TrEMBL record:
It comes from Candidatus Geothrix odensensis. The lineage of its organism: Bacteria, Pseudomonadati, Acidobacteriota, Holophagae, Holophagales. PROSITE patterns: RADICAL_SAM (PS51918). (3R)-3-methyl-D-ornithine binds at S134. [4Fe-4S] cluster binds at C60, C64, C67. Keywords: 4Fe-4S, Iron, Iron-sulfur, Metal-binding, S-adenosyl-L-methionine. This is [FeFe] hydrogenase H-cluster radical SAM maturase HydE. S-adenosyl-L-methionine binds at E159, L231. NCBIfam families: rSAM_HydE. The keyword Iron applies. One of its GO terms (biological process) is sulfur compound biosynthetic process. Residues 46-273 form the Radical SAM core domain. It holds the Pfam family Radical_SAM.
Amino acid sequence: MPSSPESGSFRLDHASLKAWLLELDPESLQALWAEADRVRRTCVGDAVHLRGLIEVSSHCVRHCLYCGLRAPSAGLERYRMEAGEILACAHEAVRLGYGSVVLQGGEDPGLTQAFIADVVRAIKQETPLAVTLSLGERSDADLLAWRRAGADRFLLRFETSDPVLYRRIHPDLPGIPSDRFAQLRRMRDMGYEIGTGVMVGIPGQTWDTLAADLLRFRELDMDMIGIGPFLPSPRTPLGGAGASTFQAPPEQQVPNDELTTLKAVALTRLACPDANIPSTTALATLDRAQGRELALLRGANVVMPNVTPLPFRALYEIYPGKACLTETPATCQGCLENRLRSIGRTMAKGPGGRKSTLCKDSVPCDFHH
Ligand code: SAH
């Protein structure tokens, strides 16, 4: 873990991070964008890693106040993909030149230990893909079985580092306290590459909380860090009529806007120089014209194009109006290639794990850990 919280002339202690998050001066922000882009280029290079996202199940036992897939969401048609359907998506990802797939879903006990282990084993046997799981909070027995079956990585956002806000927006299952930090540590010990992240602008999230989130990424030495704006879903308490009651006082409440999200992405790049940082779908949803590109120009180096079959994709409604809802995987790939070319970036080949990044040895780098 890095000892001094600085990047070049950028101080990265709590007060400085908070000040940067609040910064509005265009010249200062230009300097932040330029530094984040420089560190990104030096430490992880120009190639953008593409992870094919497979939304394997929309069933969920949780009652998270932010997510449209929450168990109480009425009138939502639920699905769970079959093993053959998931494998077909993985093969499609290979055809499109992607180096890894992410199997994401609600917290769904119907995705049994054996089912996921078999799917992971088959993907690893039949393709060269790295496999990332993003299936919520699961037992150590499940996580170990999946690791043994060949899963390489696990994404579990801690959502917010404020324990009081976390408990409010992410209620425990009866009798089982939720501790995502503990699960992240255990997964690291099991040999997974670990990803986490937060939403920007959750009702009740203050500037101090978000600054603390960014410091937490650094302390945890995360391999992957996803940051997207909170997008209200009318199916949820945080997106419904009473949502304003959850807000922090106006001078403290973080807005769920593009500028704040981009600042959080840029500061995360400075704090975690060699992490893999995606340009998130939530940001692309907020700014369809150039959200993807702006994040890639301000620190991000990963995109997760959706390879879920269209009928399922529409049902995986975490929030409404998701970007790229109607594009086939092939169209999506073409669109991305154009977008990357327009900003002078290339599609990476291969699985794109953190350890293969430039920062470690091949390029002299002043951000060495
Ligand atoms: N069930 C898994 C996967 C959840 S979806 C899990 O809980 O880890 C992945 C991420 O989408 C979540 O971690 C959350 O940060 C984000 N998300 C959920 N609801 C959202 C919303 N309304 N707006 C923006 N992002 C949201």
